[in-house]
Design brief:
It is built from seven helices and seven strands. By secondary structure, the protein is of the alpha/beta class. The chain has a seven-stranded mixed sheet.
């Protein structure tokens, strides 16, 4: 049974979706901990209401091996999922959990990735570039922005006249449909990311 720590900074849509997915039946993992770097983020209360332990930590705490390593060990975490987490992970975490950190990016990487490219910024850039499609990329995390090995991509059409909000809605539907299943297929026993 994999023990997941979700790192999140915002509303928590993906975090909640992942928690609910792994709480149904035997899917080979459970969310043990949510770590948030934004005390005002909606994700904290949403995840607490689902019975998951939440820690709100400063940037300095997240960058501290003396804080993070004992916390992750206490909760027996062996898989980190980034779900809208707006802070670069420190090298001690990317090294310690190499091959066991996964992120979802709201575009078809390598397009529209890199520092500062997150959330609505990505969707605005997609619309401004006149793209005919966009999507999601689930990828492993290393010590560079949006650079790890791609595990899964799904695309959706961008219609003429779509706004950034329209694109965001389409991408959120892809995230909800695919992210938990890709995590299960890649890191847990059994379930296919195609199902």
């Amino acid at each position: 049974m994999r023990r997941i720590a979700i790192f999140a900074s915002g509303r928590g849509s993906n975090a909640v979706n992942i928690i609910k997915y792994f709480s149904c039946g035997d899917r080979g993992a459970a969310v043990a901990l949510v770590i948030c770097n934004n005390p005002k983020a909606e994700v904290t209360e949403r995840c607490r209401s689902l019975g998951v332990h939440v820690e709100v930590l400063s940037r300095a705490d997240i960058n501290s091996p003396e804080v993070m390593c004992p916390l992750l060990e206490k909760h027996e975490v062996d898989l980190i999922v980034l779900a809208g987490f707006l802070q670069m992970l420190p090298p001690f975490l990317t090294g310690r959990f190499a091959g066991n950190i996964v992120n979802i990016h709201p575009s078809l990487l390598p397009r529209f990735g890199g520092k500062g490219m997150y959330g609505r910024h990505v969707h605005e850039a997609v619309v401004a570039a006149g793209e005919s499609e966009t999507g999601i990329t689930v990828h492993l995390v290393n010590d560079k922005y949006d650079d790890g090995r791609i595990l899964f991509q799904a695309s959706v059409a961008v219609a003429p006249g779509d706004t950034a909000a329209d694109v965001e809605h389409k991408v959120h539907l892809l995230e909800k449909a695919h992210f938990p299943r890709v995590i299960a297929a890649t890191f847990c026993r059994g379930e296919s990311s195609e199902s």
